[in-house]
Amino acid sequence: MALRQQVLVLYLANSALAAPVVAWANYDGTGARDHMAGDEDTPPYATGVHALKDGWRLFQASQLLPHARGAELDLDYLKYEFLFEKLADT
Questions:
Q1: What pLDDT is stored for residue 22 in this prediction?
Q2: Residue of 34, 35, 13 whose CA lies nearest to 23
Q3: End-to-end CA distance of the chain, in Å?
Q4: Is 66 helix (H, G, I), strand (E, B) or coil?
Q5: What is the pLDDT of the chain when averaged over all its residues?
Q6: CA-CA distance, 31 to 64, in Å (whole number)?
Q7: How many Cα atoms are found within 13 Å in the side-chain-facing hemisphere of 43?
Q8: Could you tell me the CA-to-CA distances from 74 to 40, 71, 79 in Å, in that order?
Q9: What is the 3-state secondary structure (H, E, C) of 5-64?
Q10: How many CB atoms lie within 10 A of CB 88?
Q11: What is the CA radius of gyration of the chain?
Q12: Which residues lie closer than 8 Å to 62 by C-beta, 6 or more apart?
């Protein structure tokens, strides 16, 4: 039995873990899932809280930094990134 890391990246609509998922990516170190980010039509979870309830462990959240003056409405990146992990047997 060997443990491998699975990583789930959720981008939420705002800084609350209960906010809706607007983008996501999965990375599976077990090799069981072999797909690219963006090849699924629906997110794996509706919110970050749903991922927690399913056993994902939150290990990083984006810093809450204000936009520069005049750039409050820029959409050049997704600001609210949350990184989760699970350890799975192979």
A1: 93
A2: 13
A3: 6
A4: coil
A5: 87
A6: 34
A7: 19
A8: 26, 5, 11
A9: EEEEEEEECCCCCCCEEEEEEEEECCCCCCCCCCCCCCCCCCEHHHHHHCCCEEEEECCC
A10: 14
A11: 15
A12: 15, 79, 80, 81, 82
